[in-house]
Amino acid sequence: MGDAFLDIYAELEHILVKDSVQCFLRFFVNCEGRGISSYLTITAQTLTFIVSFNALRCAKVVLEGMAPELYGMHANPNCINKYGYVVLHEAAERFSLDMIKLLLRHGASPNVRTVGNDAIFDVIENLLPLHVAVENTCLHKYLEDNLEYNLSCSHNLLDYVYKLIH
Questions:
Q1: Closest by alpha carbon to 50, among 32, 24, 72, 73?
Q2: pLDDT digits 0-9 by tens, 89-146
Q3: For 94, how many CA atoms within 13 A lie in the half-sphere containing its CB?
Q4: What is the DSSP letter of 41?
C-alpha cells in the first residue's frame, strides 16, 4: 500500500493544493483507487494527506462517501494511520478549526490517543488531539515571544535561529 501511495503522491499533492473535488474524483477513477483505497475504504494515509493540505472540500467528499466515483467507499476519521495517530491529531497540529469541525461532524472522536513510540516517526504515546493543539500553541507562543525579544536585542536573525536550534 505504501509504494502505491508514493506512486501517486506528487499528482495527488497538486490536486489537494487546489482542493478540487472534481480533479480528486477524476484522479480516483483514473488510478482505480490504487494507493488511495483498500478493502472498500479510503485509507487512513490518504485522509491524513488530505487533512495535512487542509483540503476541506476533498475531505468532506471522502468522509461522506456519497460521490458515485467512490463506489460507496468512505474514509474513517478514527482510523489510526501508520504514524500512530488519527487525522484529528493532524488537524489539531495545524490549527485547522474548519477541518476539526468537519472531522467531528463526521464522527471523529476527540478521545482517541496516539499509539506507539516508533523510533522512526517519534510519536509520543497517549496524546489526545487536544494535547497536540495545546503543545503547538505553547511552542508558537514561545517562538513568537522570543523572536520579538531576541530581535530587539540582537540585529542578527541568524544568531537567533542558531540559539533556537541549540
A1: 24
A2: 888 888 888 998 999 999 988 887 777 755 545 666 667 666 666 666 655 555 555 5
A3: 18
A4: E
Length in residues, the chain: 166
Q: Which helix (H) or strand (E) holds 24?
A: helix 21-30
Q: What are phi and psi of 38, to 5 degrees?
A: -155, 135
The three-point CA angle 149-155-156 to 5° equals 105
What are the φ and ψ backbone dihedral angles of 110, each rounded to 5 degrees? Answer: -75, 0
Q: Give the separation between CA 36 and CA 42, rounded to whole angstroms.
A: 6
Whether residue 25 contacts residue 67, with contact meaning beta carbons closer than 8 Å, is answered with: yes
Owner of C-alpha cell 490517543: 113
Contacts 24+ apart (CB under 8 A), 141-150: none
Locus of grid cell 541568524: 158
pTM for the whole structure? 0.75
- Return the residue matching grid coordinates 478521545: 111
Do 87 and 112 contact (CB within 8 A), yes or no?
no
The DSSP line for 109-165 is -TTPPP----TTT-PPTT--HHHHHHHHHHHHHHHHHHHHHHHHH-S-HHHHHHHHH
